[in-house]
Write a structure and sequence with these properties.
This protein has seven helices and seven strands, in the order βαβαββααβαβαβα. The chain is of the alpha/beta class and 201 residues long. It has a single domain, classed as Rossmann fold. Helix 1 links the parallel strand 1 and strand 2. The longest helix has 26 residues. The radius of gyration is 16 Å and the shape is globular.
Length: 201
């Protein structure tokens, strides 16, 4: 089985819902499984720390999760056109994997949620791709063969799935947004499985 790591940070639940939809898309492939992980929040107070195990939801990611995956979907809400600090903090600790080339040639993609339609979705997706490029991963987006890219009036970009959550972060996900998440999950699974078959051949 090809393991696709769906790694995300979510504050109000919008990105978490997207991660669940991507996992559904991954698991629509008979030879792929989704491994859903999150990261703890970071604090400006040095003494503050999160419990070692989250009170609910997916477990916190470890470097072993990255090492063992065959593909990666990386998700974050946007923060001034960039990924949120907790996800950046986790990625900043992956230099050992970079030195060993562990993630090289594995497919990867990004997804995001914003409070407003023009809240920096595309810049967030692109900046999330930068560390993945440094790791030598094979970046994937969404092709315009996905009809929702041209019919959506909310989230959805060729750089990856996106969602417009509203100012309170509670806006419902549209059908188009959910379909694009599932399409990305399936695309990652298809690619990871094909690459693994090629490596075994």
């Amino acid at each position: 089985m090809s393991r696709i790591l769906v790694l995300f940070y979510s504050r109000h639940g919008a990105v978490r819902h997207m991660a669940e939809q991507i996992a559904r898309g991954v698991e629509s492939h008979a030879e792929a499984e989704a491994v859903v992980r999150t990261v703890p929040a970071v604090s400006t107070t040095i003494e503050a720390s999160e419990p070692p195990v989250p009170s609910s939801g997916p477990p916190y990611a470890t470097l072993a999760d990255l090492e063992d995956c065959h593909g990666l979907a990386l998700g974050s809400p946007t923060r001034f056109g960039n990924m949120a600090a907790p996800l950046k903090h986790f990625l900043d600790g992956t230099s050992g994997l970079w030195l060993s080339g562990t993630l090289a040639d594995k497919p990867a993609a990004a997804f995001t949620s914003t409070g407003t339609l023009h809240g920096g979705q595309e810049t967030t997706l692109v900046t999330m791709m930068m560390p993945l490029l440094h790791h030598g991963m094979l970046l994937m987006g969404l092709p315009y063969t996905e009809p929702e890219l041209t019919s959506t009036g909310s989230g959805g970009t060729p750089y990856g799935p996106s969602h417009v959550a509203g100012a309170d972060g509670q806006g419902p996900h549209t059908e188009e947004e959910e379909r694009l998440c599932r399409a990305l999950g399936r695309r990652l699974a298809d690619t990871a499985v094909a690459l693994e078959r090629g490596r075994r051949a």
